[in-house]
Amino acid sequence: MDKLKTVTISHANLTGYLPRHVHLNLTHIDLSDNKLKGKIPASLTLLEDLEFLNLSSNGLNGEIPTEFGDLISLKNVSLASNSFSGSIPDSMSAIPALVHIDLSNNQLNGTVPRFFSELRGLKVLNLENNELHGVLPFNASFIKRLAVFKVGGNSNLCYNHSVLSSKMKLGIAPCDKHGLPMSPPPSKESSADSESDSSDYDDGADDTSEKKEHHHGPSKVVLGFAIGLSSIVFLIVFLVLLSKWCG
Q1: Could you tell me if 70 and 46 are in contact, meaning their C-beta atoms sit under 8 angstroms apart?
Q2: How far apart are the C-alpha atoms of 237 and 229, rounded to whole Å?
Q3: What is the edge-to-edge ordering of all strands in the sheet holding 6-8?
Q4: What is the pLDDT of residue 189?
Q5: Taking a C-beta distance cutoff of 8 angstroms, is the pair 3, 25 a contact?
Q6: How deeply is 2 buried, as exposed, middle or buried, from its count of CB atoms within 10 A (0-12, 13-18, 19+)?
Q7: Measured distance between the N- and C-terminal CA atoms of the chain, rounded to whole angstroms
Q8: Are 96 and 122 in contact (CB under 8 A)?
Q9: Which 3-state string (H, E, C) describes 90-129?
Q10: What gap in Å lies between CA 113 and CA 234, rounded to an integer?
Q11: Burial level of 144, CB count in 10 A (0-12/13-18/19+)?
Q12: Degrees (nearest 5) of the Cα angle 202, 204, 210?
């Protein structure tokens, strides 16, 4: 057991909790795609030689331990698709060799730490689908040097549009002057619906104006009555003239 370096038990329907006692010589742990639950035990952060940690796709919860930064040899970490909450610990800034960080699909909150941009070897940073908020603290040069950068799915996270271009398609909205996400512009379908609604409204307005025009002229009943009255008057005048002529 003293020579044990790697533990890989993935896609095995493994249940229960993470072990509280682990071999200190481990460099590789992969327990992904199981049914593990509970929190990350403090004993796991004692593995100073650990380079690879994959606990993704389990039912783990709680906060990422503040002692996580004690994993000074860590290069690749994935805690994705669990139910971790709380903020990303600043202690991770003490892990200089990090190359791959995947914390996606959790319930992490707080702001995005600036120290990620100081990790010189970092190539993959996936923070999508969490509850992170605030202004993204990165510039374009940092994002462009990454092979993978994902922050979408954080509805309260936004970027400074004077620092980052919308052409980068980050999956988040630009910030307003208060540092809050701007409302997205209406979709084309919504615009089309609006135009359709306004055209329907205009048709109604035309109908109304036509009705008003009809009200301006005499109605058919009044017009018929006037014609009938004129005919009677004409008949009376004719009879009067006829009687005088005969007399």
Answers
A1: yes
A2: 13
A3: 6-8, 28-30, 52-54, 76-78, 100-102, 124-126, 148-150
A4: 46
A5: yes
A6: exposed
A7: 149
A8: no
A9: HHHHHCCCCCEEECCCCEECCCCCHHHHHCCCCCEEECCC
A10: 100
A11: exposed
A12: 105
Task: Please give the Cα distance from 132 to 26 (Å, whole number).
Answer: 32
Q: For residue 246, what pLDDT is reported?
A: 63
For residue range 64-80, what is the model confidence (pLDDT) as tens digits?
A: 999 999 999 999 999 99
Residue pair 140/161 in contact (Cβ under 8 Å)? The answer is no
Q: What is the CA radius of gyration of the chain?
A: 39
Percent of the chain with pLDDT strictly greater than 70: 73
d(CA 215, CA 184): 47
**Token code pair at residue 108:** 């992490």
Confirm if 21 and 43 have CB atoms less than 8 A apart. Answer: yes
The encoded tokens of residue 97 equal: 């060799």
